[in-house]
Amino acid sequence: MTPSQHLKLGLIALVATLVVDQAFKVFMLQVVQITPGQVITVLPVLDLVMAWNYGVSFGMFQQDGMAGQWALVAFKVAAVVLIAWWLWRAETGMTALGLGLIAGGAIGNGLDRVLYGGVADFFAFHITTASWQFQWYVFNLADVGIVAGVALLLYESLLGKRPDASKSA
Q1: Is residue 169 one of the residues assigned to a domain?
Q2: Band of pLDDT at residue 74, cut at 50, 70 and 90
């Protein structure tokens, strides 16, 4: 793959992540009209719920006020600019794909903050037995893109092949 093909792959991943995330959020909020506290059981281990996240990952640093929300938006914009710069310089398709997924997810969650004042989360995984219960944080498809992108970057940095420097000289 050429650098321009890497960039194209990353941009396709960014747009696809953003579109799928925002389309699902519009569907849940406008068509299903899910409300906070409402639970829609999809599988014995998966529910759709409505949770607004006014903080960052895993609900940390909750920001109820407008100034805090705009500070988080500014942080996301700065992060996306850095990721875009990295994507522009990506040397492998896997790096470009991972960065595109991360950027698409970050833009999707940032757009939520601008449109709604917080991030709309819907997916709740849980396991319940007679003596034990586990529930993961509520998340959305943008978060899935971010986690998948980070996983690709980690995989590549730990196990992936490096571009041959002698070929690029």
Answers
A1: no
A2: confident
Q: Which position among 21, 64, 121, 164 bears the catalytic label?
A: 121
Structural domain contains residue 36: yes
Q: Is 164 a catalytic residue?
A: no
Q: Which two tokens stand for residue 158?
A: 């730990």
DSSP 124: E
Query: What are residue 169's DSSP bridge partners?
Result: none
pLDDT score recorded for residue 169: 47
Q: Which residues contact 123 (CB under 8 A, 6 or more apart)?
A: 46, 47, 48, 138, 139, 140
What average pLDDT does this structure show over 18-45?
Answer: 96
DSSP code per residue over 57-119: GGG-S---SHHHHHHHHHHHHHHHHHHHHHHHT--SHHHHHHHHHHHHHHHHHHHHHHHHSSE
Cβ 111 vs Cβ 22: under 8 Å? yes
**Does 12 reside within a domain?**
yes
Catalytic-role residue among 21, 47, 112, 143: 143
Does 143 qualify as catalytic in the annotation? Answer: yes
